Amino acid sequence: MNRSWPQAVDRYLARQSVQGPWRLTGRRRDVYRGAVVIPSLAEGTSLMATLDSLAGNPPSVTERFLVVVVFNRGEQTGDAERQQNERDLLSYQALAETATLDLAWIDATRDGLAMPAAQAGVGFARKLGMDLVLPVLDWSADPLLICLDADTLVEEHYLSAIEQHYQHSRCGAAVVKFRHQASADAQGQAAIDRYELFLRSYVYGLALAGSPYAFQTVGSTMTCRARSYVRCGGMNRRKAGEDFYFLQKLAKTDGLEAITATTVYPQARVSARVPFGTGRSMARLLAGDKAGVLFYPVTAFQILATWLQSVEDKIMAAPEDLLVGAERISPALVGYLTGLDALKAWSRIQKTHANRTRRLAAFHGWFDGFRTLRLIHHLCASGLQRGEPEDILPAYFAWEGVEPPVAVPEMLTALRLRDPLVLDKRLKIENAVH
Predict the structure, then answer these.
(1) pTM metric for this prediction
(2) Distance between CA atoms of 203 and 413, rounded to whole angstroms?
(3) Which residues contact 118 (CB under 8 A, 6 or more apart)?
(4) Who is most buried in 112, 335, 379, 408, counting CB within 10 A?
């Protein structure tokens, strides 16, 4: 086994990695340039379609990557999913013998190997795959970790586009462009268009506000350097939202950019496996419950924008001055910051960081993506009304200074084209941290 990795990897494996009976099985080589990690729970033909799309990448590229599928279930998973998972595992093992891809797997589904009920979910499965693959990466070549989902298709230049990005990037992480697959019917298409538009409009609002957290947090788009994975403490074990928290950590520690030269295509499907996200939102929309996906008013992001600019202007002032500035912007904002005990946090930041650039970076490390999202929710709960995209989103485009599209499909097209813009506009946390 390759043991020529940095000491930080040893420390991570000893202190923060998943410990248990699980093993990485099936690889053909000793070390790899990178790994594609795919959690799978009763995916059936969707998993095979994902693998087929990966196999469409040139062999000269795929030979450098290990594809790891984590067949996972919780101890309380139903019989139907458990049985499908075991059939998938057997099919995958047979495919591994003849596939052009180098396929490995982790059995977290058979009796005695199921994930603990309290932690069973996609976060634990992703972590399990990324942790167990660390020892078989080529640490002399700045190895990469790539997250994919078992219902997501990729393009034939997917792996080479990711490799080329990291050859020219200083950042430790990046998200790939995404676009949901087309639905089989008009009702399903309208539902996924609305949900994807909701995701994009939130990030659009963050970008217009100047937030450094203006990036998509979709699990099948995540990539990072293996060193950055270790440095940020690895994947979390959350049952939902694991992608949001993981990318937030990476943005704080090593910086995050966009990979725009290729696109991944997640499936638009109904699911009840997690309490929120695409599957739950699709279920509510298809049931006619549009209130399940209501859009944030532009005023919330304008308050955020004014607040972030005020902080930048007053970052060297006394903590009390920051709160006074917030009070002039919005009473709801002040109430939110008071609940966070902001004065104490700012005092600590100012004592620790005398340099303006580092102090601003520390502020954004504290006022992170999660606290930003909570602020937007707090502002809406305090009187700002969420609503339909046709009513809400024209004000976003007007704020940017462009002619607003009228209908949801045209709005979605416009925001898809703004992916690079969204990330280019954000503040660079990594420039201040390092």
Answers:
(1) 0.91
(2) 15
(3) none
(4) 379
